[in-house]
Write a structure and sequence with these properties.
Family: Belongs to the sugar phosphate cyclases superfamily. Dehydroquinate synthase family.
Strand content: 15-25%
Largest sheet: 7 strands, mixed
Shape: globular
Order of helices and strands: EEHEHEHEHEHEEEHHHHHHHHEEH
Bound molecules: glycine
EC number: 4.2.3.4
CATH topology of the largest domain: Dehydroquinate synthase-like, alpha domain
CATH class of the largest domain: Mainly Alpha
Radius of gyration: 20 Å
GO molecular function, one term: 3-dehydroquinate synthase activity
Strand order of the largest sheet: 1-2-9-6-5-3-4
CATH architecture of the largest domain: Up-down Bundle
InterPro entries: Dehydroquinate_synthase, DHQ_synth_AroB, DHQ_synth_fam, DHQS/DOIS_N, DHQS_C
Subcellular location: Cytoplasm
Structural class: alpha/beta
Number of strands: 11
Distance between the termini: 46 Å
Helix content: 40-55%
Number of domains: 2
């Protein structure tokens, strides 16, 4: 078992191990809850029922709520339904919610927990690689509205996060590859050993029996350090957006049909090229990005001919200040800097390279 402490206003632990249901149930009981709502996606109804059984065996009253898959589950109708159910079941301030699923579920379950009675406990049990290494850790919760994704939300730290390595065996290979983009991102911003592992043996890095468990732990440790120091994204937490400015623009252009990790991979290639054009990194660091992303099957290029549209999307990025585009960039592996107001010529040049 690996346990990673997350400091901050409400410290908690991320537990990484196999077969965690008993540990989750014990933790839920120890929080002082009498009632627990388990929120899950349709595809994991069976694991949700097993977890519910274990929670009942601890003497807890359990309600199970299935929510629509992916971003559809983050429409405002979902929390409305869950708030209604919490009311019908008389959930009080001391009760708890378990978010069992991908990032959409952990974001939404966290949001419902943050808002019910101004905040009840949430236990996050991420089941996708992306949610394990990113969404479920750090207390960002939110839903989508017609104004955009995650514009309505709250910082609400979980009482614990449980990463069950057993789940990795059930994930499609493409999902492991896409989720790995966020692991690689944490390597580039803060943990060079992660990058070394991808250089050493790319296949082992996406193998649940290979380096993958170690990489998850390393990536969570990076995220824990960052959010422990800067929960509300006043500075350091912005570094977790490495590759995301261009990545979000690609996702928007693709109507969110691209996997998030694939968009982040292309976004990292874009910022690497831009950083090179700005004189921040050498060509070998750009080549390193290309090599490790490509070696595990992540995309490193994007279609030509869409610069203006992508540029427009980047101008709406939440990190921008006073009308200036603002990127998280590298000065080397493990060292970040802020790149503000790059010229449109350099932005276009970076795009031209990754789309040629
Ligand atoms: N996914 C970026 C963050 O948690 O801040």
């Amino acid at each position: 078992m690996t346990t990673i402490a997350v400091n901050g206003p409400s410290p908690y632990e991320v537990v990484i191990d196999h077969d965690l249901n008993a540990g989750i149930a014990k933790h839920a009981k120890a929080t002082g809850a009498d009632k627990v709502m388990v929120v899950h996606q349709p595809a994991i109804a069976e694991p949700a029922a097993e977890l519910a059984e274990q929670l009942r065996a601890e003497g807890l009253y359990v309600v199970v709520e299935e929510v629509p898959d992916a971003e559809a589950g983050k429409q405002v109708e979902t929390p409305i339904r869950l708030w209604d159910r919490l009311g019908e079941e008389n959930f009080s301030r001391t009760d708890a919610i378990v978010g069992l699923g991908g990032g959409a579920v952990t974001d939404m379950a966290g949001f419902v927990a943050a808002t019910w009675m101004r905040g009840i406990k949430v236990i996050q049990v991420p089941t996708t690689l992306l949610a394990m290494v990113d969404a479920a850790v750090g207390g960002k919760t939110g839903i989508n509205t017609s104004a955009g994704k995650n514009l309505v939300g709250a910082f609400h730290e979980p009482s614990a996060v449980f990463i069950d390595l057993q789940r990795l065996r059930t994930l499609p290979a493409q999902e492991i590859v896409a989720g790995s983009a966020e692991i690689i991102k944490t390597g580039f911003i803060l943990d060079p050993v992660i990058i070394e592992r991808y250089e050493q043996d790319p296949a082992a890095c996406i193998d649940p029996e290979g380096f993958l468990p170690e990489l998850i732990a390393r990536s969570v440790a990076v995220k824990a350090k960052v959010v422990g120091e800067d929960l509300k994204e006043a500075g350091l937490r912005e570094t977790l957006n490495y590759g995301h400015t261009f990545g979000h623009a690609v996702e928007l252009r693709e109507n969110y049909r691209w996997r998030h990790g694939n968009a982040v991979a292309v976004g990292m290639m874009f910022i690497a090229q831009l950083s090179y054009a700005q004189g921040l990194i050498d060509a070998d660091v750009v080549a390193l990005h290309e090599r490790i992303l490509r070696n595990i099957g992540l995309p490193t290029t994007y279609e030509p001919g869409h610069f203006d549209e992508l540029y427009q999307a980047m101008t709406r990025d939440k990190k921008n200040r006073h009308g200036n585009l603002r990127f998280v960039a590298l000065t080397g592996v493990g060292n970040t800097t802020r790149l503000e107001g790059p010229s449109v010529e350099n932005l276009r040049a970076a795009y031209d390279v990754i789309s040629s």
